[in-house]
Amino acid sequence: MNLPFWVRRAHKWIGLVIGVQALLWMLSGLYMTAISIDVIHGDHLAHVADAPLDGGSERLDVEQLAQIRPGFESLKLKKFLGQEVYELRAGGMTSLVDARTGALLSPLPREQIVARAKDIYQGEAEIREVTWITQAPQEVGKRPVPMWAVRFDDSANSTLYFSPDTGDLLARRHELWRWFDFLWMLHIMDYDARSDVNNTLLRVASGVGVLFALSGAWLVFYSFRRRAQA
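The structure corresponding to this sequence follows.
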């Protein structure tokens, strides 16, 4: 049996099969290491921080609030667009109410979402489009719908996604993130959910890559040993 011949042939064909994917692994890995993860996350697009509460402001206490909005399980006092509000949670649902009157504010209308987006956006571009989303696009994954999508007319095609119940920023998306997501899909070879790093296709490709490396190492060792014997 001519072992070197078959190892060379196997190495060649394995290289043809796995070579393109190996190149994709390297290119996607280069992109992921070249660009800061903070940039990918879009931290520069929108800054979200809780505004300080007014110490002397009039607001409902918990007992008064429970009379107006009975049945809530937890609450949080915060500011939304300069107004003190209570964020109430009950039965898996979250809503905002006016901290002074208990009036229900959720779901938040388009105008307040636009004001919220302008308040936290860090760029200079104008808003290009505001969309009510009932089916989550790929780039926001499994985040709960419905939601508001606010798109800005900047070079990065920046989009901020907001909860209509609380006004919270759910996601920041821009072109660098979208490229990262695409390359991540190629890197882990999950072409559906883009999140499963233990999928069968990746395992097979990784195993084939190991065989390619081992056969190449064996050929190098064989070549040097043959020269030494000559």
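The chain has a mean pLDDT of 90.
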